[in-house]
Amino acid sequence: MKRFTGILSGTAGSFIFLAVVMAVAVGCGSGSEGRADFERAESALSRGEYKKAVELYAEFVALHPESSLAPESIYKKAYVYKNMLGDKQSAMDSYATLLDLYPASEQVFLAREDLAVIHSSMDEDRLAIAEYAWLIENGPRAKRSGYHYEIAMKYVKRNDFDQARIEFEELLKLEPSKDFIPKTYFQIATTYYLEGRLDDAIKGYDVVIGNFTDNPLYVEAKFSKGTALQERGSLKEALKIFKELMGEYPNQELLKIRIEATEERIEKGPRLKKKRRR
Known about the structure:
Blueprint lengths: L30 H16 L3 H14 L6 H14 L4 H14 L5 H15 L3 H14 L5 H14 L3 H13 L6 H16 L2 H14 L5 H16 L2 H10 L7 H17 L10
């Protein structure tokens, strides 16, 4: 049986063909009759008849619980609830059924990823973190960097910057893919910036600037460093960086505003405190 790896579209309008055609002759516990039941659900899904599809997937599992396609049917049912019908609670109920009845199935990993996304969308960050933590311990090794990154970003969202940096550092110890390394260093620097630790933020952005010149975050790190320098009062250094980004930074309008504001502050000079009269 081919593994279901298709990514489902988030909108019904752009979703034309959802299901990957599968070879189900092998492993289907109820022979041709079971295969026909599964294909009816697949056909309804491909036609965009989402409510009918979830009914047929549920019917298939009820009739053929021993089939190797049963866990996939539950997963697809949950995924349609989540992405096509927008019914998060029914999706979570279906995912829970999958985890309970078929804990050893390969769809369990996809289900927990989806549960983490649902919890995140509901601001249930602790539950999302718990799902990602389970996946780090039990999920595919190739995806562990991504799970660590998601956990760290959840802590950033919660303003727990110390724990976020711990998670980012753990991620770097895993020898992540080259895509994760620059954005992890960038996020570490940003946690310092959000805390108001501008010197540490500037040093952090320098790591990205000095080591990842070919990465899109190189430009973003330069802009962020300029912003931190500006807030620290190092206006001439900030202005130099901002001007270097002219024609390069994606948001030229924002860059122009920063340049003008920095030039204005330089022109006015330092503000002297007036002595109070006794």
